C-alpha cells in the first residue's frame, strides 16, 4: 500500500511544512454496491488513502470492496452497527487522524459526486485560504435549471436556516456532502457531539463556527443517474428546524455572551427586550381600549411604536454585525509552527 503521495501546495504553505501533504478520501458505504467500485476507480493519484466505511450495510458493500478492489490505497473499515452517514464519516475521520493524514475529502459512494473535482476542494485548503470546503450545486444556473422545484425550494429554506444557526452567511447548499477538511480542524473538534445522521453536514458547520474555522463553497454540478437518495427534504424539514433552533441558540450564547461580549451582544439583548416590551405594551393597551370602546391615546400608541422600531433597529444592527463576524483566519495557519 502506498503510504504517502506528495501533494503540491501553494508556495507559502510549502515553506511552513516539513513533509509533503497527504490526502485521504472517506466514502461512507451503505446500499451503494452498484456504484462503489466505479467511484473508487475514478479517484485520482492526488489521494494517498481511500477509506471505505461499511456502515453495517445490508448489501455487504464492504466485503465487496475487500474481495474485488485491488487498489492498494483502499482500506475498508467495518462498523458494528449502523449509525448513519455522519457516524460513518466520523469513523473515517478518526482513522485519518490516526494515520497522520493532512486533508480528508468526503464523497458519497452512490456516484453523484464526481471524484475528478477533488482537486477543486483541496486547493483552498492547501493554499491556506480555508479549513473546510464544501460543494455548492446552486452556483451554476444550468445546474439549478435541471433540479426539481421542490429540491430547489427545500434547499433554499434549509440554506437560510443554516446561515442563521451556523453563522456562515456566505455559504449555500448545506446538505451537500462533497467536502474536504484539514486535520488541524478535526483535531480541535469534539467529533462525538456531531449529529450522526442526515443533519451531519449542517451540524459540522455549526461546530466549525464554534472553533472559528474558515469555510469556502466550491461550485460544482450535481450528477443524477439511477441512484436512489435516502434523504427526503420534505420529511426531515421540521426535524432540521428544531435542530437549527437549538444550534442557533447555542451559537449566540457561546459567541456573544459566554466567550466574548461586544456591542453586538447589547444590541441583541436590548433589541429583544424592546421588541417584547413593544408587543406586550401595545397589545395590552389595544385590548384594554377595545374593552372600554375607547380610542387608544396617541401617546400610548407612540410609546409602543417607538419600542418596536427601536428594538427592530437594534436587531438589524446585530444581524449586520453577525454577517460580518465570520471566521477569517484559518485554524491551520494559526497552528503553523505549534
Number of domains: 2
The helix/strand order is: HEHEHEHEHEHHEHHEHHHH
Oligomer: single chain
- Mean pLDDT across residues: 87
User: Which structural class fits the helix and strand makeup?
Assistant: alpha/beta
Q: Count the helices. How many?
A: 13
CATH topology of the largest domain: Spore Coat Polysaccharide Biosynthesis Protein SpsA, Chain A
User: What percent strand?
Assistant: 5-15%
Query: Roughly how much helix do the residues carry, as a percent range?
Result: 40-55%
Please give the largest β-sheet. Answer: 7 strands, mixed
- Compute the CA-based radius of gyration: 24 Å
- Shape summary: elongated
CATH class of the largest domain: Alpha Beta
Strand line-up across the major sheet:
3-2-1-4-6-5-7
Overall strand count: 7
Concise account of the structure shown:
The protein is α/β, with parallel strands linked by helices and 338 residues long. It has helices at residues 11-14, 36-41, 61-68, 85-98, 118-126, 141-145, 149-166, 183-188, 200-210, 233-258, 263-291, 298-324, 331-334; strands at 23-29, 49-54, 74-78, 103-106, 132-136, 179-182, 215-219. It has a seven-stranded mixed sheet, with helices on both faces.
